[in-house]
Amino acid sequence: MTKLSVNINKIATLRNSRGGNVPDLLKVANDIQQFGADGITIHPRPDERHIRYQDARDLKSVVYTEYNIEGNPQHNFIDLVLECKPTQVTLVPDAIGALTSNAGWDTIKHQSYLLEVIQEFQRNGIRTSIFVDADEKMIEGAKATGTERIELYTESFAHEYGLGNKSGIEPYVKAAIKANELGLGINAGHDLSLDNIKFFKDNIPGLLEVSIGHALIAESLYLGLENVVNMYLQKLK
Prior knowledge:
By secondary structure, the protein is of the alpha/beta class. The chain has helices at residues 9-18, 25-34, 53-59, 75-84, 111-123, 136-145, 155-162, 170-182, 197-203, 214-223, 225-236, and strands spanning 3-7, 39-42, 66-71, 88-91, 127-132, 149-153, 185-189, 207-212.
């Protein structure tokens, strides 16, 4: 079964919009795990517009499933991850001020930098994953960095699937086959939803984990958080 890690950034966005501690991020994280999710994902950004760095520290004592921290490996982020020691760190090449993640790493151009950062995390017992496009050359470049996993950036697939174009899965299938050949674990995320998750999972060989936030929280407004978490788990079986 492919694991479900729930990204709780949007819960933090809602809390921050009003001030105070409603909704309580730590309680939501605990509840999501109680509902059956396999992990919690956060993506702190330098401006702390949703997840704050202190949230990452506070969640360490709450997350008893897999704890995944995503972000651009700048100095403050690296220090935070080494302090929190999550299960996994996912390296994402976010530009400053980016609304959301919009591209994978060029693992050839940035290979030496990624190699250095990844070695530091691995020395501290933290599993690493690199956010990449569905491009076989980028998969090969990721392998050379020493990372254990990649996370396929699925925005393009989700867009094409929404238009009724199921052939949009093809580059992802090829990327997954290449990753499997190279011994890389496969994660995926971005714009995956209840509508497209089963098709994606059924067609990607060796898919270990998906990280879903925006769609899952939006769907929960209508269907309820516990119900939606379990709907994803059923589709991922």
